Amino acid sequence: MINRASDSDRAFGQIIVQMPWRDVLRCEYVVCHRAHGRGDVVNTVATFSSLPPSEQFDAWHEAVSKAFVPLDARSRTEGAFGGVLANHAVGAVQFSDVAGGAVDVYRSAQAIRRFDPGYLKLGMQLRGYCLVTQDGREAPLTPGDFALYDTRRPYQLSFDSEFRMLVVMFPRELLNLRADDLANVVARRVSGRRGVGGLVSPFLVKLANELRSDQIVPTFELSNAVLDLFAAALSEQLGCESPVRPETGRHALILQIKAFIDARLDDPELTTATISRIAARWGLLDSSHFSRLFRATYGMSPREFRSERIVSA
After folding, report:
1. Domain boundaries 2-190, CATH class
2. What is each CA distance from 244 to 38, 178, 230, 233, in whole angstroms?
3. Which one of 11, 242, 273, 305 counts the least CB within 10 Å of its CB?
4. Tens digit of pLDDT for each residue in 120-137?
5. Three-state SS across the chain?
6. What pTM value is reported for the model?
7. Which residues of 180-195 are buried (b: 16+ CB within 10 A; e: fewer)?
C-alpha cells in the first residue's frame, strides 16, 4: 500500500511507501537537492503483473488512488489486469506513467468530499483509447492526444482495452490560465497531430519514455516548461487571449524551432547561425537566451540536438 505522509506533505510530493507485496513490487527512490533552496525529487515504480491475477486490479486501484487523489475504479478486464505505475514528483508537480487493462476510473462527489487538494490533471494517451468525461463534455483520446481535467469536480476516464497514459498532476495555481478559461477547457481533446498540440505531443511522448527508462530526471525547470506548453496548447484550443507569461510563448516557439530542425536535418545550410536567425525571426532575439531555454527544455543545446538526430537517423 502506498501512503502519503499527510495532506500537507502531498503538496510537496512526499511519499511514504509500505509494501505488503515486497516480493513483487519494485520501488525506487531518488532524492536530490535544487541548486537554490532545497527540494525533493521522489521516484517510485510499481509493477503488479507478478501478483496473483485475482489481486492485481485491487492492488493497482489502491496504488493509483493513493498516488493521485481518492478514486473509484471498475475493472472491465477478464483475467489478469497487469498494470504499472511510475511516479516522478518534482515539488508540487507529479509526472506519472500509468498502464493497465480495460477499466473505468472515476472521481465521485463522495471522494471529493473525502479529500480535495485542488489539483488539475492532464492526461496524454500513449497507448489504447480513453474517453475523458467532465462537466457534460467528452474528450475521446487516441495516442498522442491529451486533455485536462479538474480533481475538484467529478470526472471519469474510460479505457476500453489495455492502455498507457502519461498523467501530469499539479496545483491549479501553477497553470497560467484564467479561471473562466479553465472552466471551458476541461475535457476538451487537444489533438497531438496539429497546432501547438502537435508540437507538444512528441515532446511528452519522449519525456514519458525517458522517465520510465530513467534516462532523464525531471527538474523544476522542466516542470515549468511543461506547464507553460500546456497553457499555450490549451489557449490555442480555446482561441482565447489569456494573458500568458512571455515564457509560455517562448517555449511554444522553441517547439516550432525544434520541428523546423527535425524537418531539415539533411540541409547542409542548417548551421547554428541559421538556427539563431530562425529564432530571431520568431521573436527570440538573444541567441544565448534561446540556447538556455532550449537546453532547459530538451537537456541539450540546439547544435547537440541536431548532431544527435543526424547520428540516430
Report:
1. mainly beta
2. 28, 9, 11, 11
3. 273
4. 999 999 999 999 999 999
5. CEECCCHHHHCCCCCEECCCCCCCCCCCCCCCCCCCCCCCEEEEEEECCCCCHHHHHHHHHHHHHHHCCCCEEEECCCCCCCCEEEEEEECCEEEEEEEECCEEEEECHHHHHHCCCCEEEEEEEEECCEEEEECCEEEEECCCCEEEEECCCCEEEEECCCEEEEEEEEEHHHCCCCHHHHHHHCCCCECCCCHHHHHHHHHHHHHHHHHHCCCCCCCHHHHHHHHHHHHHHHHHHHCCCCCCCHHHHHHHHHHHHHHHHHHCCCCCCCCHHHHHHHHHHCCCCCHHHHHHHHHHHHCCCHHHHHHHHHHHC
6. 0.68
7. ebbeebbbbbbbbeee
User: How many beta carbons lie within 10 A of that of residue 5, not counting itself?
Assistant: 11
pLDDT tens, residue by residue, 140-194:
999 999 999 999 999 999 999 999 999 999 999 888 888 888 889 999 999 998 8
The C-alpha cell at 225 is: 516548461
